[in-house]
TrEMBL record:
It comes from the Bacteria. Keywords: Hydrolase, Signal. It holds the Pfam family Sortase. Residues 1-26 form the signal peptide. Residues 24-51 are annotated as: Disordered. InterPro entries: Sortase, Sortase_dom-sf, Sortase_F. The keyword Plastid does not apply. This is Class F sortase.
Length: 206
């Protein structure tokens, strides 16, 4: 097992998600709000075993079921202690939280993305809540390898009930967390978070 991020870092990440999910940002966002979805709680679903990969930064992310193929940028901590989020631009990208394991390492690797990007419309994780158990997610790594994950659960939760331990807690194998906002909007902010849980199922080029 790996040492999980301290609760301060986990709380900081949560704070960033509460404030930085691609809302209006003063740009007059007109994209419709995501539909809240009740989904099964996080559960261990057996997937094909694959050996963990060495540490290598993710550079791309594919989600075939959603037609997503995006570059991945590094995200750290902002000066106020919250986790950075990808910039709100027309060239929306996902971002990997670099204080989490890289995809394929043992532990929960965390990738964030916007649901909407202000006046630019849909964000890269706009349809994240549509994923189902067994759907594939592929993380392309800087060293030329690729880590393929199988979705085990999709949860839409109220931001006030964000499952910090489930997202950041210790796990025995390589796992992935994709996180965005969802549900109805309260002014400029979405009320919920959409969280995809996935486990490593295969590796390529290792």
């Amino acid at each position: 097992m790996i040492r999980r991020p301290g609760r301060v870092l986990a709380t900081a990440a949560l704070a960033a998600l509460l404030a930085g999910c691609g809302g209006a940002q003063g740009d007059g966002d007109t994209a419709p709000s995501a539909t809240a979805k009740n989904t099964a709680p996080h559960a261990r679903t057996p997937v094909e075993s694959a050996r963990p990969l060495a540490r290598s930064v993710p550079v791309g992310l594919r989600i075939p079921a959603l037609g997503v193929d995006t570059p991945v940028m590094d995200l750290g901590l902002a000066s106020d202690g919250t986790v950075e989020v990808p910039p709100v631009t027309d060239d929306d990208r996902a971002g990997w939280y670099r204080h989490s394991p890289t995809p394929g390492q043992v532990g929960p690797s965390v990738i964030l993305g916007h649901v909407t990007v202000g006046r630019y419309g849909d964000g890269v994780f706009r349809h994240l809540a549509r994923l189902h158990r067994g759907d594939r997610i592929e993380a392309r790594l800087r060293n030329g390898t690729a880590a393929e994950f199988a979705v085990t659960a999709v949860r839409t939760v109220a931001k006030a009930d964000f499952p910090t331990d489930d997202v950041y807690g210790d796990v025995a194998g390589p796992e992935l967390r994709l996180i965005t906002c969802g549900g109805p909007r309260d002014g400029e902010e979405y009320r919920d978070n959409v969280i995809v849980f996935a486990e490593l199922s295969a590796t390529q080029g290792a």
